[in-house]
Write a structure and sequence with these properties.
About 50% of the residues lie in helices and about 15% in strands. By secondary structure, it is of the alpha/beta class. The chain is elongated.
Length: about 400
């Protein structure tokens, strides 16, 4: 058994768990972030050096369908035999290449099909109100294709508004603390110099900008595609409801990718297709600290003006420099009006933010919220509309 699985203290256990989950996904055995969290908790109660005990615990949590048992056993034997970091790296590289080949094959098969893409097909039926209520509670990682299409339609109908801020400019008002001396004098001239009526001004109000940074690494894959639809919906809500001043969108895994221009297209399929093509580290590792550093030093001055609100979407599973993550989170917090972290794992009642990434980020977050189903998005909308300022220090 490799050293990372023998000891959680050498820092490799978390990395190897994520690597094994990716290996399982090659065989279409999807491992959700909630399962990853339960798996990590279960490993604290077994002997990691005992192959049989480790396999049984892993299989009980990660395998939900009988047809996946054969692939799980094959993947487990392959992974267990990796004995050094170099061999693990080769296994990971081979895995990434295989995933790339699989994607290209699926894309090619879709392009030559007479019926077009399955995603272009409308859902079989329009969900009734009771169906929508049940669907709104269902975790995004557990949706079937028909339910995903229904969720996309519901996302497109959601309205998003951010609270306003007062600007330095002002406008005429009937009442107010500030007297408009110019207009008052102009009115008095028309009345022969008599100050019969005082005119007032009040500050103009403007919607706050919104900046979204979405984790598209391997551990976020069960959620990432649907969350990109969420980002598209919130980006276009400003034209539908004039609720947002501006929206900037970024994706990150091992590095940062700006998606704002791609998501401006009116056609949602074209917008998301171009965005996905631009992201070259989709399903890879997570280096949040390095990505935030790139954002802070390259983009923050351009997009964080006028009291911007920042939403960072990630499960907190990180393989990068944790100290750098803490420093860049602190820097980001000082640059924005409010910093919100959305975590899909937070929807599980048993979830605890114990990963090193979340531990480094939590001291700098104003709001820590779930983003695992439609109900959680509605709660987020209510929060955005009622924001009044940054969190006060305890």
């Amino acid at each position: 058994m490799n050293e990372g699985l023998q000891s959680a203290q050498d820092g490799h256990l978390l990395r190897n768990m994520v690597l094994f989950a990716r290996l399982l996904r090659v065989g279409d055995l999807d491992v959700t972030p909630v399962q990853m969290s339960d798996w990590l908790s279960a490993l604290q109660h077994i002997q990691l050096a005992d192959k049989r005990e480790f396999r049984d615990a892993s299989r009980a949590i990660l395998v939900r369908r009988y047809r996946d048992l054969d692939w799980f056993e094959s993947a487990f034997e392959l992974f267990w035999q990796a004995r050094d970091p170099e061999e693990l790296s080769e296994l990971e590289m081979g895995l990434m290449v295989q995933r790339h080949i699989d994607r290209r094959q699926r894309a090619s098969a879709t392009s030559v099909a007479d019926g077009g893409s399955p995603s272009d097909e409308p859902p079989e039926r329009i969900a009734a109100w009771s169906d929508q209520e049940s669907l709104a509670k269902k975790d995004f990682a557990e949706l079937d294709p028909g339910e995903i299409e229904a969720i996309k339609q519901l996302m497109a109908k959601m309205k998003w508004r951010l609270e306003t801020r007062q600007t330095r400019r002002s406008k005429p008002a009937r009442r107010g603390r500030r007297i408009d001396l110019r207009q008052t004098l102009r009115r008095s001239v028309a009345r022969g110099g008599e100050l019969a009526e005082l005119r007032h001004r009040r500050p103009k109000e403007q919607r706050r900008p919104l900046v979204l940074l979405c984790d598209v690494s391997g551990s976020m894959e069960p959620y990432a595609r649907l969350l990109l639809h969420f980002i598209y919906a919130i980006s276009h809500s400003r034209s539908a409801a004039l609720g947002l001043a501006s929206v900037e969108s970024f994706a990150f895994g091992t590095h940062l990718t700006r998606l704002t221009r791609d998501l401006r297209h009116r056609d949602v399929d074209r917008a998301l297709s171009e965005a996905a093509q631009r992201i070259d580290d989709w399903g890879g590792g997570t280096r949040t600290g390095e990505s935030l550093k790139e954002f802070n030093f390259t983009w923050s001055r351009r997009v964080l003006g006028r009291g911007a609100v920042v939403m960072l979407i990630s499960d907190g599973w990180d393989r990068g420099n944790i100290e750098l993550l803490g420093r860049e989170m602190e820097r980001l917090r000082r640059s924005c009006h409010r910093l919100i972290w959305l975590n899909p794992l937070l929807g599980s009642p048993s979830y605890e933010p114990l990963t090193r990434g979340m531990q480094a980020a939590l001291p700098h977050i104003d709001d820590f919220l779930p983003v695992h189903n439609l109900n959680s998005l509605e709660q987020l909308g209510e929060l955005l509309a009622s924001l009044r300022g940054p969190r006060k220090a305890a």
